[in-house]
Amino acid sequence: MGFLDELQKTIKSDPKTYGGICDEDFTTKTELMPFDYLNGQIVTKDTGEKQLYTGLSNGRCVMIIGKSGTGKSTMAIQMGVNIIKKYDNGLMYVFDFEQNNTKERIRMVSGISEDYYNNHVAILREGISTERVLATLSKIKEMKLSHKDDLLVPNENGIKDKDGNVIPVLTPTVVVIDSLAMMLPDDTLSTEEIQGSMTATATAKVNSQFFKKAVQIIQQANIILIFVNHITCNVSIGVTPPSAIVNYLKQDEAISGGKAALYVTDTLVKITASSKLEEDKTYGIKGFEAKVEICKSRHAPAGRSVTMIYDQVNGFRNDLSMLDYIKSNNVLRGNGNGYYFPELPEHKFKMSTFADKIATDPELYKCFYDTAERLFASSIRESRNIQAIETTTEETTAPEEAPSVEAE
């Protein structure tokens, strides 16, 4: 056995001493199709096989940022519930530091029953702190690893091992922090004094320690940690404005939580509210159009965005967001009196009643869903720089630019 083989075998065979090997990056869909494909990637392997990744990475940190009233908490809740309800042992814990989440609101925007909520979702509100969050993550890890055999499920990507078997992963658990700006350590919460900048400094230090410890815990236990965070004004801007703290944020925009939160965040999502929607207009709902933008991602290009439809009653509407994207790509025919898909000219509908129409027309629903998925899939940029060792010195051509998710 040569040096290379011997060293590889030694390291891989003793994870307790040297650390566990993790070669694959698995993802799970949030079932919000516009977002899942926005944060998607296609990787071409050495064999020529194309592997599609969409949604959120397993066991990583996600941060959803935006100004007040843009639907940050709603998106976090919808993503979380959509992930866990695919699994018998799926669980979601919401650390409600802002004291705003309710059982009724979570059920309304996610569509889950009261029985499902009671068995799979919990809002943690009293006596919570940074330390309590870390303790909860540690206990989840301990319990999941002790019941590992009962919690293994096939990975959603369908990735197989060398023997052709689909690699199992731990059932995802979702923990939502609402919000990072309000998450404080025990020492700060135990005093009634207002300490100003000293409190902010102490909180930043504790947060830094929290993230350093949490990042391995959530990876080992497949906990998807979703932070809600606020965009605030950067008051330090002077005559010479500093660079933005993160690409695709404005120079005067700041976010809470310290630098450590940004370092460990796998996916940073920014929501910006735009046009208002009224009940007597296009979609028949009261809400707004929201620009959902990827500011940072480990496996998708940053700076891309997609428009999603926010309903003040039901949260982000997957169906109407998909329809809006299809319409913006000039696929639909007809006009306000009756739109239709080219494949189904007899199945006409109005935007305001579209949700009811597809609920009673299976053929239209299938055409709608297939069209949306095809359009979103075509927007993903393929990674083509993975090659066999023998061919790395050969001349290659630059990959063609794929269309952006944000329609012209």
Q: Could you say which structural class the secondary elements and strand pairing correspond to?
A: alpha/beta
Q: Oligomeric form of this entry?
A: single chain
Any idea what the CATH superfamily is called?
P-loop containing nucleotide triphosphate hydrolases
Mean pLDDT: 89
Give helix % range. Answer: 25-40%
Biggest pleated-sheet summary = 10 strands, mixed
Please give the number of β-strands. Answer: 20
| CATH third-tier fold name | Rossmann fold
Tally the helices: what do you get? 14
Supply Rg.
23 Å
Poorly predicted regions are 385-404
The CATH class label is: Alpha Beta
Determine the strand fraction and express it as a percent band: 25-35%
What is the CATH architecture descriptor? Answer: 3-Layer(aba) Sandwich
Distance between the termini: 58 Å
What is the number of domains? 1
Shape: globular
